[in-house]
Amino acid sequence: MAIYEVSMKVSERTKVVECDKYTSEENLMRVMVYINTNVFCRPFDDQGQKRVLLETEAFITILTWINEGKLELLSSQTLDAEILNIDDPAKREYAVDMLEVYTTKYVTLDQHILTLSGRIHRKCGVDPIDAQHLASACLGGAAYLITCDDELWRTKASVIKRHILKEGFKLKVMNPIEFVEAFKGG
Q1: What CATH number did the domain enclosing 147 receive?
Q2: Which of 40, 49, 156, 186 could form a disulfide with 95 if both were Cys (CB 3.0 to 4.6 A apart)?
Q3: pLDDT of 10 strictly over 80
Q4: Domain that holds residue 41
Q5: Distance of CA 113 to CAs 43, 76, 121, 178, Å?
Q6: What distance in Å separates the CA atoms of residue 35 and residue 99, rounded to the nearest whole number?
Q7: What pTM was computed for the model?
């Protein structure tokens, strides 16, 4: 399945956002999350490892909250592309299916995302694809980017947070376990 086909399937039933027209008022109704590819793959990882099991359970809780309308899921063309590059067909199909079912808002890759992701990549030293995920989440109006990538939510978290704030966004990067604990408590 081509990236275009996945994007079209998702965008047929979701609100496609033009990034330059995003307003923060859209984000006030429900908390919007952007879930990184590695989280969608967690159910296929070694569940014998405690951290992996807890992240998988947290991911399932997040999907439940999306289904109940407590959260909204923002997806992107960058996420589609990364998911379509997953080698394992079962893992890839699962991730595509999850996006089709749960996505409520979608951002296409445009010049705004590319420009912002370039600045994030240069200033924060993150991988270019991770920078595109961060930019997509920011410009799409997500309050949280949920990831299992230690570099994003631990190692470079403070640098990312500072730069994102300088850019005028309030995106928080969190691990699924940390997010569930925070969301339950708040």
Answers
A1: 3.40.50.1010
A2: 40
A3: no
A4: 3-185
A5: 29, 10, 12, 27
A6: 10
A7: 0.85
